[in-house]
Specification:
This protein has about 500 residues and is of the alpha+beta class. It is built from 14 helices and 22 strands.
Length: about 500
Amino acid sequence: MSIPFRLALFLCTLLPLSSAISQDKTKDLNAMLLEGIEDWHIPGMTAIVVQNGEIVFSEVYGITEVETKTPVNRETLFNMGSTTKAMVAMALGILVDQGKLQWTDEVREHLPEFRLSDPYITEEARVQDLLTHNLGIAGADMLWFMDSVSTAQTLKRFALAPKAYPLRGGFEYNNLMYVAAGEVIHSVSGMPWSAFVKKYLFEPLEMERTVARASDIFKAGNFVSPYFYTAEEGYIEVPHNLSDQIGAAGMIWTCTADIEHYLQMLVGKGVYKGKTILKPETFKYLFEPHALIPKASFYPTQALTDPNWTSYGLGWFQHDYRGEKLDFHTGSIGGLIAIAGVIHEKNIAVYFLANRDHAELRHAFMYKALDLWAFDDGDRPWHKEVFELYEGFRKESLGREKALVEKRVQNTRPTLPLAAYSGAYTHPMLGTAEVRNTASSLEVRFNDFLGYRLEHWHYDTFRSVEKDDFQQKPVFNFSLGAEGQVETIEAFGETFTKTKP
């Protein structure tokens, strides 16, 4: 039977209109990203949008390295940072599906060596508590900033991190608990967490380039270099962070071609090309709110989104956005950033990866993409609003630096000769700080891993001469005891006690 002329005419006009609308959305988002890459000085990035299982936007931009100007392509590896956490939670979910553990199992049932500073929390901690940042123990990122010992030794030291609040009675972001989650995966499955996610996530999702160990990028090739940027110094390349001892907290590297498949699984609610990666009930459980987040602990972009509630699932931050629940997470680690977002009710998921530290164009991309494809609304100038918000924070930071310099007391001297400050200082959790005097000032080295050259600041306070890998110039304050001898050095909010000259 032939199609009536008027119906055929209607179909012919409808299809180009739909295509034109899609092209307008793509053009709108691309224009914002091109503007943002200039304003944020981003060397290279990738941005992907998947809706209803279809890749509706997938673009790569810029270069992998400022010096060589090698173009980013679909196979270029970027660091996922803390968006890794969602995959670690999924790996535990797969073990739940396999019947090998339950979310409410005691951690020590699977990891007998697990210890925390509070005996009650140690015994009561459940597997899902490792993923929700509300276990009650303070974060201790200086453990891996200052040293590069094994995962087991890192967690052993973490047992000295202080209790911050009652069990499940607060919220404090805690990378080390995801490290413990990785060890649970190893204990239960008999495979290192990195091998487990490769077998049960990367391979079924056809994520052929993705690696779970940062040190593996050199063998894989085609990866970005990390950068900071300042108006005064331009692009500042920093070393790749290879802290694989805390890999489950944020060391997976992936590429555009692979992340498209991951997003298709997310909008497929745990299913990819007919393969069930996670059972429906387990997939849903990952995205249920498991911990409330006080607004003081949430993202600064809440000033623009004005959420009614903020929470955390298993590896996902959450808030209400335009009447829907948005699950998302950022990743940030030494010159490399990421953001992932998904609105399940709209069957849409987004991802953004870049090699410029804290380029918050990632937030603008996420909300702009969601507006365009989930809500058919591209009017809000997200890049402008996010840029202005973070420009305010940048100016505040410059103001704090200016105030610190202005408060410096001029024409003072250290109380004692520089040799008196030399020696070994120890911290029960963070290890050893070795201080030695040079011809003009002091040097300090933590665990023979992280070092600083110091200049005298005022009185018995010294400051780093150069910026470190985090683009900071830390302050080091020495304290004298009642007998006039140097007893401690305070750095990064922690106190190291002198043990030998």
